[in-house]
User: Fold this.
Amino acid sequence: MTSDFHVSMNEYLPLRDVVFNTLRDAILHGELLPGERLMEITLANRLGVSRTPVREAIRKLELEGLVIMVPRKGAQVAQITEKDLNDVLEVRLGLEELAMQFACERIDEAQLEQIREAALEFEQVMESDDITALAQADVKFHELIYAATKNRRLIQIINNLREQMYRYRIEYLKDSTARRTLVKEHREIYEALKERDHKKANDCMRDHIENQQKAIIKSLHQSE
Assistant:
């Protein structure tokens, strides 16, 4: 366990929730790796808390599918599986297509410009080879599209799913070829939104998600 994550106290949350959020973020951001053992004592010492909130957090993470209990070994970070990936992306595709429909109908010129700038920002960040910054830039691009739907409930649901996608997004962005593909796809999505072409926008988003799916599955098979 060599990552540098640490607990960020929040006076408005119970300690068990703070620990849960800290460990969840560490898993989603790849700071705790798939297959890594979660030792209660080690984590408690590292985070400066007792074992009780760590134990409670691990139980909640197990319910979310981010942690598994292995006989005689204890808690481990769950592996990224093809089935989990497909389940998440099936849901994401449906939500993204709905978001594209609403965005095409409701987007304004200021939001279009923000999306164009976000696409350029991703392209610029790509040169730095900073995976975390790339992931943040990619998230920003999509968040601006969601904002253009002007539907708070849809945005909330997609944002919840986005957290589960973070592990897969990081895996995808490790591939330099995939990053170049993303630049092209972002441009195509922007152009479709600019034209308010719902069908074209949907097709672009479907290609975008399916390309990610293929690349991540390929990466999973290579690491087996």
